[in-house]
Design a protein that fits this description.
It is a single chain. This protein has 215 residues and is mainly α. 70% of the residues lie in helices and 0% in strands. It is globular, with a radius of gyration of 16 Å.
Length: 215
């Protein structure tokens, strides 16, 4: 099961840079889409079943291989599934930070050693999960966890929400996270679910001069 490794990679204190990104929550708050706990829950649910599913499928696929050619193909697949140039840049930046942290934790892993700097985040996440001894399903679980935990924390800071209500939201979403992780890990084809509004938010937020979050 390698539970300790799973918890390490899912820990918000793991130095992979995710704490600095809002996952679209900052732009959604500014646009008035997310204003309170119920609207945040809807936002997180939509994010989970679109970009969360896609990232989980890519991470699961990356966890199944250490072949550089296959990982490069998955990186291209991630690029094709990320229409926003701003969000592509964010994904590569996060991938670079995660790769540095993962190499420190598992320096002997050939798959991590073979990944070039700037590989997209879901591919690095799946490779790091495999290096840590985790299954493809566990890699998918990490991806869906990140899909909701980062934006939830960002919204908490932006809106001053009750943290206990936020915990309740995440607890209600837990069965959906398991469902999406299972769907991603067992898919016969790589998911390509999209969220055009998140792409628009990403482009819009990238143009802001003053930001609390990097994206």
């Amino acid at each position: 099961m390698m539970t300790a490794a799973l918890l390490l990679l899912a820990d918000g204190r793991f130095p992979a840079g995710g704490h600095a990104h809002s996952g679209g929550a900052a732009a959604a708050v500014a646009a008035g889409t997310v204003t309170d706990v119920p609207s945040l829950e809807r936002f997180l649910l939509g994010r989970l079943h679109t970009v969360g599913l896609t990232a989980a499928g890519l991470a699961a696929a990356a966890a199944r291989t250490a072949d550089p050619a296959e990982l490069a193909e998955l990186d291209r697949a991630t690029e094709a599934r990320t229409p926003s140039a701003a969000l592509r840049a964010v994904s590569r930046r996060l991938g670079r930070q995660l790769l540095r942290a993962a190499r420190a934790g598992w320096p002997a892993d050939a798959g991590l050693a073979a990944l070039p700097a700037g590989t997209h985040h879901p591919v690095v996440l799946g490779t790091a999960a495999r290096a840590a001894g985790l299954t493809d399903r566990r890699a998918a679980e990490l991806a869906v966890h990140e899909a909701v935990s980062g934006p939830a924390t960002a919204a908490l800071r932006l809106l001053g929400l009750d943290p206990y209500q936020l915990v309740a939201v995440l607890a209600r979403l837990a069965p959906q996270l398991d469902l999406v992780a299972e769907r991603a890990a067992t898919a016969t084809r790589l998911p390509a679910a999209s969220a055009p509004l998140l792409d628009l938010y990403g482009e819009r937020y990238d143009s802001w001069k003053v930001k609390l979050f990097a994206s």
